Amino acid sequence: MKIVSAEAFAIRLPRARERAQGTAGSPTVLAEGAARYRFSPTVDALYPADFETALVRLDTDSGLTGWGEAQAPLAPEVACDIVRLLLRPVVEGAVFSGAVEEIRALWQRMYSTMRVRGQTGGFMLDAISGVDIALWDLAGKIRGLPVSRLIAGDAARTQVPAYLSGLGGASADEKVGRAREAWEAGFRTFKLFYDAGEADFFHDLRALRRELGAEAGIAVDALWRLTPESATAFGRQCDAVNALWLESPLPPEDPLLHGRLAAAIETPLALGESYRTVYELRPFFEADAVTYVQPDLGRCGLTEGLRIADLVWKLGKPLVPHLSIALGPQIAAAIHFAAATTPCRMLEYNPNVLETANRHLTRPLEVHRAEWLVPQAPGLGIEVDAAGLRAADVFVT
Q: Of 150, 204, 260, 383, which residue is most buried, by most CB within 10 angstroms?
């Protein structure tokens, strides 16, 4: 069969920011104003006021459709234009039988379209990832297999442990209360964002440790806020509460700084969401700068994600995929990836994000007793409610 069309759609969904604050994709309060994108007072980066993403749709001459999604929380129009202008000529008209080797060849062809013109990261790889996920969805549908089994055969798991990403609340008592509710629901691992002052943050972190005890895994996401001067002292405070990991501590461009920090503290470092290929991650491995590796499937796609997972396995490191603002295709891709990769320990979970995604799927993705349930229908196992999205008037034009 042939792929006859490749489309990309920028999506903007309104959201209750107060409810989402302190959780994945919305870790900090935003500056006041009417701007679509706003700076945070604590993190030197722009964040979206709304929920934004980029969906990709591939159609075949046999009537099958594959859905993909790029991680595009800001300016999803950019990733969509890359799909329309640069990647569509690669995939439209391609003969496609659903073979993994065909997906790898198309990934390489897409990666080569802008060689020496800025093809190695950023929006370009995000767009490639959206198309790549759609190709895997199509492949599973053609072969009649869920993506996880297309990758790992009978070794694919049907459930993946979930960890709770972010504990909203204005006080330590509120965060502890939410953590206790999650504990009763089966969660044993939590992530807290460094979204306020240092003293307040560690007050909350110590309160969580006292409440949940030594059995709980409590990870820290520093949101790239630390400096070479402050990072070691901050990391040693993480050591004192036996933090599971310290995520994104320093500006993401410098592997040597991360390597020095990793050598100076006991808490393992977690990195990966900023890096889209093995090429970008390798200097961090060479600097011994990372223990927990966190690829984001909306940025690396399944094809490059699997190459990252192979390297992580050879290095003997744990894999914990990153999952932030996303609709169904990106979440489903992360679930299948986690279910099919041996070094994967668990997968990030944000209830608000999943709730939003499920509103736009014809059947929901599920978490039960702190376990992601791996969809068993062919492909990603989801279908996007395109008619519902159109009726909701959320397409950015």
A: 150
Q: Kindly tell me the number of DSSP H helices and DSSP E strands found in the chain.
A: 15, 14
Report the residue count for the chain.
397
Is there a common fold for 3-144+387-391 and 151-384? no
CA–CA–CA angle 124, 129, 189 (5° rounding): 120
Query: Per residue in 135-187, pLDDT tens?
Result: 999 999 999 999 999 999 999 999 999 999 999 888 999 999 999 999 999 99
Specify the residue for token string 């279908």: 383
Amino acid type, 305: G
Give me the residue spans of the domains in the chain. 3-144+387-391, 151-384
3-144+387-391, superfamily in CATH? Enolase-like, N-terminal domain (3.30.390.10)
Domain 151-384: top CATH class: alpha beta
pLDDT (tens digit per residue) in 357-392: 999 999 999 999 999 999 999 999 999 999 999 888
- 82 near 127, Cβ under 8 Å? yes
Are the beta carbons of 39 and 46 closer than 8 angstroms?
Answer: yes
Would the pLDDT of 336 be above 60?
A: yes
**Other Cβ atoms within 10 Å of 227 Cβ, number:** 11
Residues with Cβ within 8 Å of residue 387, at least 6 apart in sequence: none
Q: Sign of dihedral through CA atoms 209, 212, 217, 220?
A: negative
Cα torsion for 376, 183, 245, 326, to the nearest 10°? 40
Residue 384 tokens read as 């996007």
Cβ neighbour number for residue 215 with a 10 Å cutoff:
7
